[in-house]
Design a protein that fits this description.
alpha/beta, 3-stranded parallel beta sheet, 4 helices
Length: 113
């Protein structure tokens, strides 16, 4: 917030605590004389469909609800990080299968679903 126009979380960010991190960024922006509301907050969200093991996991409906919740916490942009998906990240997964799996995510998580 002090030196940039935005902040991006890392893949290991505790999303349940992201509101506190956003507040720190916005406070730093305000202390630097910037408009804290203008600071972009980008969440790198690791998606884990299947078992519910935290934010952005479980059913696609739960993941979409978590995306809405993140917006309520102050996240202005969310990108779904698929790098940790076991199908996409498997060394023996070919490019076509990885692309098909990514398409599954895009279709299931598209806005308005």
């Amino acid at each position: 917030g002090r030196i940039a126009d935005g902040w991006m979380s890392r893949s290991a960010t505790d999303l349940d605590a992201i509101a506190e991190q956003i507040a720190a960024v916005r406070t730093a922006a305000a202390e630097a004389g910037k408009d804290p509301a203008a600071v972009r907050i980008v969440c790198r969200g690791v998606v884990r469909p299947g078992e519910r093991v935290g934010r952005l996991s479980g059913s696609f409906a739960q993941i979409r609800a978590d995306a809405d919740w993140l917006g309520e916490q102050g996240v202005t942009e969310l990108f779904y990080d698929l790098n940790w998906d076991p199908v996409i990240s498997a060394p023996d997964t070919g490019p076509e299968r990885a692309a098909d799996r990514a398409e599954e995510f895009l279709t299931a998580l598209a806005p308005g679903r």
